[in-house]
Amino acid sequence: MRTDMLIDGEWTTGSGTTFPTLNPATGEVIAEVPEATETDVDTAVRAAAAAFTSPAWGGLLPAARARLLLRVADLLEEHADEMARLETLDQGQPLQVSAGFSVPNAVEHFRYYAGWVTKITGVTAPLSIPDVDYRSVREPLGVCGLITPWNFPLMILVWKLAPALATGNTVVIKPAEQTPLSALRLAELIEEAGVPAGVVNVVTGGPETGRALVRHPLVKKISFTGSTGTGREIGAECGRTLKKVSLELGGKAPSVIAADADIDAAVQGNLLGGLLNSGQVCAAYTRFYVDAGRHDEFAEKLAGAAGSLRLGDGLHPETHLGPLVSAEQVAQTTRYVGLGRREGAELLTGGNRPDGELASGFFFEPTVFAGVRQDMRIAREEIFGPVLAVLPYEDPEELAGLANDSAYGLAAAIWSRDIGTANRLAREIKAGTVWINMMQGLDAAAAWGGMKSSGLGREMGWAAIEAYTEIKSIWTSHN
Ligand code: ADP
């Protein structure tokens, strides 16, 4: 297992101290990892800046760059089992999630962006000026700082890394301090694939390491996924130094279950949509607006299904729900469950940490509240734990207003058999993504990101190519 950092093609413990990364299923220390200092960050950024203009990377022809990304995808796929187990060990997500979703999605992202490398075109335009030709080209930005969260450490990193490399940038990665191991292993595979030294650097550490990266004058862009508060701080700092910035932040996704919805399909989709990765998903369905006439039926079925999920160590193949990532997340979830109770919501299932053999890990029971009101904090604030809130609504005309009555706008779901109602709501809801009659889907080809306090910019699809390039206009005189 790699526990040192990759800076300029060298594996190093850096110039600072170390910090532990834990197995959330047991609370035990897996490994000690370096805490990168400002000096380490500076060395990594300078290495990335030098690699950007080096013949080995900057001079690489597009077809060769595409082949490198395909090679990374192949290596990741060859090591999929190992990578999934590492992710589960460090993050807690069940193997069903890491092996079934996170790693394959990361592989597909590398392949998808390998495909784009040879298709990043500009335009020619007919200017209303005599005797000139005009064309635009897309150029890479330079050194990009990629700061990632702990909920899907490998997959979310690759959402940034694959397009950043496809467009010819170099990167310094700062993985979340809770879950650094899969990023380090990926960096090793990238090295093995033949990506030149300095193109991909990884510095491990906490917020101070992240801050040093955001402040660094040679960094041209920051791509961040994480909490809204941290996103605001990063956005402000990028404003000061005029770096480009993409922010994928928190969410409080509404899921609307119309009177005509297929309740059993909605229960199943919302169960998975709400509890995937124990609710530690920025697009988790967390507030369910159910027609008042069907509220009790939906809530009881949802609670029954949630209560029957198997909680356990993610490494056990039968586990449905793993632990939360840390003691902090357990404390946060516990606090919100207490708030829900005090505010008068009806607790149908869960609400506690399990005891017995799971007591030493960071586990929390899947929890369903019914009869939740719009003004309750469990209906308004991001919990990032396995807590689902069911709210009755009386009038379908108020649905868009209820869904939009939130600081966030990352994602939403609509369950209805009436295609007209579903599509009208999809247009009215302010969210970066709307899923109709399905749990969350993600695909490298579908743009991803948030409105309002859920962020700035889009990842995936062509949008990510734009996010990692700048347009240059070139005019040529005929004379
Ligand atoms: P959470 O609060 O959910 O643990 P954060 O959004 O604070 O998550 O952290 C997400 C990522 O951002 C992590 O890699 C973390 O180390 C990093 N980070 C936290 N604070 C800052 C900051 N002020 N500047 C740069 N990176 C930061």
UniProtKB/TrEMBL annotation:
Q: Which Gene3D superfamilies match?
A: Aldehyde Dehydrogenase, Chain A, domain 1, Aldehyde Dehydrogenase, Chain A, domain 2
- GO MF, one annotated term: oxidoreductase activity, acting on the aldehyde or oxo group of donors, NAD or NADP as acceptor
Q: Give the domain of life.
A: Bacteria
**Any idea which UniProt keywords this protein has?**
Oxidoreductase
Active site (UniProt): 248
What Pfam families does the annotation carry? Aldedh
Put simply, this protein is called Aldehyde dehydrogenase family protein
Organism (species): Streptomyces qinzhouensis
